[in-house]
Amino acid sequence: QVQLVESGGGLVQAGGSLRLSCAASGRTLSSYAMGWFRQAPGKEREFVATISRSAISTYYADSVKGRFIISRDNAKNTVTLQMNSLKPEDTAVYYCAAEPASWHIAPAHEYEYDYWGQGTQVAVSS
Predict the structure, then answer these.
(1) What parts of the chain have a pLDDT lower than 50?
(2) What are phi and psi for residue 9, nearest 5 degrees?
(3) CA dihedral sign, ordered 93, 99, 104, 109
(4) How far apart are the first and last CA of the chain?
């Protein structure tokens, strides 16, 4: 079983950038497809980005496409979400998730993921 810990959240002004990291322990990260999700106050958790075990497949929510970049370093057991041109509507708790998917598969639905971190808060001021 893998344990996930997110870091890198904080408060940033609109137009700024943040870099979130998800560190895995217990199992090697290369065994899992990885995803980022977020939950804003009063809203349901939503998909943000996903990356396959091979890193060949990546998908993004339309709301973040062109602004966010997901990447992984299997040797360091970390997944990163680089967030640029942040907007107030990006304010949310961000979660990373892991799923033992096939090599090139990048799941984009919450129900597909078995393992979750505790989340890191991102706040974007206008």
Answers:
(1) none
(2) -70, 170
(3) negative
(4) 40
Residue given tokens 């989340």 in the structure block: 119
Torsion sign over Cα 63, 36, 53, 83? positive
Please give the full DSSP string across 35-66, using - where no structure is assigned: EEEEE-TTS--EEEEEE-TTS--EEE-TTTTT
Check residue 94 and give its pLDDT.
Answer: 98
What's the pLDDT score for residue 99? 95
Please, are residues 16 and 124 in contact by the beta-carbon 8 Å criterion? yes
Determine the pLDDT at residue 27.
85
For the chain, the C-alpha Rg in angstroms (whole number) is: 13
Q: Are 55 and 72 in contact (CB under 8 A)?
A: yes
- DSSP for the chain, please give it: --EEEEE--EEEETT--EEEEEEEESS-GGGSEEEEEEE-TTS--EEEEEE-TTS--EEE-TTTTTTEEEEEETTTTEEEEEE-S--GGG-EEEEEEEE---TT----SGGG--EE---EEEEEE-
